[in-house]
Amino acid sequence: MLAVIHRHTPPRGTGALALAGPPVVIRQLQWLHDLGSERVAIELGQDERGERVRRLVTEQKVLSRGVVFVPAATPLSPRALGETAGFPAEARWLALPESVVGNADLTRLFRRRSIEGTLVGRLTPPKTGGPFSPAEVHLTGPSSGPVTVESLPGWGTLIETPDTALQLACEALLGRLSLLLHAAETRPGVWVARGARIDDGAELRPPVLIGARARVCGQARVGPGVLIGSRALIEPRARLEQALVEDDTIVGEGLVVREHIATPWGLIPLKAGSDLLPQPEPLLAARRASLLPARLTHLLRIPS
Fold first, then answer.
1. d(Cα 228, Cα 190) in Å, to the nearest integer?
2. How do residues 38-50 score in pLDDT, each as one tens digit?
């Protein structure tokens, strides 16, 4: 199976959004890998967001096998993307938008003996009551023709903002949605990854995910609805609710973070409708600067 992961117009850079640990692009590659994909072409913007996605993928030695990166100044059509990646002109390939995640059986589209034009796979959002949108994937053939629509079993939805990613992750943490979590559930809705430390006196209110080698100090209160990144440090009396904490971020003593992303450079509203620009906060800092990714302001600029 050949597949392409293509950008939106305008490009949103959602591939780098964390989704209960792994970013969206890694979730997509795992989805395609489990379905038996042979080659995947990933369209990259020619900016820091594109480079970030490239680094995230190349760090995954198994998933990056068979991946071809296609930098493009402007978004390409799925057909043009596959051709640029060197896919055979007579072949069919699956077109997966950069913001679509799910578990639907996409191979059903390939079981068609022949195809003229485009076959659209319609994905139903998870039935959890969250504000999730339906999504589509396309199977493109070498010749033009009619558009045929088929509903696929399983679920699929769009992840276009940090707020949507957080809500989907919380559904998974509460057991309402099937999503692979690289952590252990220590009690209902509370997930702790390998090497994380929870000090005595810390309060965790589900749903919560504590990333690998992160630390939550005593008297800190985390949750409900909080994802803490790897190696982050939550100091005493900090309060987090409906929030994301980036990797390697120190949340200082007594700081309240609600409906924001905490980064070493400041706070970003989860529901920002324009470019995500950090609001400076002196109680936020970098824990391990040598491991920090490129600045989030350049990665997650989401147009209104």
1. 12
2. 899 999 988 888 8
